[in-house]
Design brief:
The structure is a homodimer of 145-residue chains. Chain A has 145 residues and is an alpha+beta fold. Chain A folds into two domains: 87 residues, Winged helix-like DNA-binding domain superfamily/Winged helix DNA-binding domain (Arc Repressor Mutant, subunit A, Orthogonal Bundle); 43 residues, Ferric-uptake regulator, C-terminal dimerisarion domain (Dna Ligase, domain 1). In chain A, 43% of the residues lie in helices and 21% in strands. In chain A, strands 4-3-5 form a three-stranded mixed β-sheet, covered by helices on one side. In chain A, helix 2 crosses helix 3, helix 2 packs across helix 4 and helix 3 crosses helix 4. The radius of gyration of chain A is 17 Å and the shape is globular. At the A-B interface, helix 5 and strand 5 of A face helix 5 and strand 5 of B. Chain A binds a DNA duplex (25 and 25 nucleotides) through helix 2 and helix 4.
Chain lengths: 145, 145
DNA sequence: GTCAATGCAAATCGTTTGCATGAAC
DNA sequence: GTTCATGCAAACGATTTGCATTGAC
């Protein structure tokens, strides 16, 4: 697994800035997230860590702590789809929303500029300063319907 | 607390149709949901039941079971906002989405026809048969920013 | 050497389940 | 009388926390 030096450098910078310690575990978790092309639960991240870095005796609590930390500093983000609990994805791709098949669980990502624009306008009309959003369309995908 | 006879009648009809039993507990939970003007967690519903119907010795498990049942038959629906877990609201109001203040937790409802239309179109483009959706805008409300 | 981060286990939270009892039909 | 729903407590899965130890600086 190759690493993603720009983002790793970014993490180092942030950690230093906050006067915290740079650890191998945080780097491993971030690296897993950067290579994942799916939305992962904390447990899935934990399993991937054990699989890809078998020598690093990392605990599940550390994975949770690392994920919270990475979300806090905006390197990854989370959404709560239905019953599966919180899922994480890295922030290095551009923004997008999700179409979710309620039968097979397949997730398709999409982006729509018009919807984004209207969201901004609605926020403005309600005197909200928008910081993020989450939109999911649920339904049956082509194979399931 | 006055009851909402049309919806209650609807519940009775559904229960009968399914060959199940009509119980006071299901009616109480539905009635709480009909009078709530907020998005409630199961625990909040439980507390409201105890407060409004102190004589009904209802258990938390029954509240969970009643909420699942009511959601299944489409009298209420749920969304999972951030960390607070699943929240329920009654389905007697028209469809809407949510603006959520990340500081004070305030929720403002809104509806936008254009967004709905574009969602339908995106679903169609991806060959999805849409059954529902959930959209939340996060930010700071007028008083918090 | 200091202080933060880790690993482990125990604790906690929200939710679900098993089972004997009670209520609806 | 049969069957479903309830209440309670125990079980459960996911996440968090306390604490002694380790590692970064």
């Amino acid at each position: 697994m190759k690493d993603n030096s720009e983002v790793i450098a970014e993490l180092k910078k942030i950690v230093k800035q906050k006067g915290l310690k740079y650890t191998e575990q945080r780097e491993i978790v971030l690296n897993i997230m950067l290579h994942a092309n799916a939305h992962l639960t904390a447990e899935e991240v934990y399993n991937l860590v054990k699989e890809n870095y078998p020598e690093s005796n990392i605990g599940i609590a550390t994975v949770y702590r690392a994920l919270s930390f990475l979300e806090e500093v905006d390197l990854i983000s989370s959404i709560a789809f239905g019953a599966d609990g919180k899922k994480y994805e890295s922030n290095d791709k551009s923004h997008h929303d999700h179409l979710i098949c309620t039968k097979c669980g397949k997730i398709v990502e999409f982006f729509d500029k018009d919807i984004e624009d209207r969201q901004d306008r609605i926020a403005h009309e309600n005197d909200f300063e928008i910081t993020g959003h989450s939109m999911q369309l649920y339904g049956l995908c082509s194979s399931c319907k």
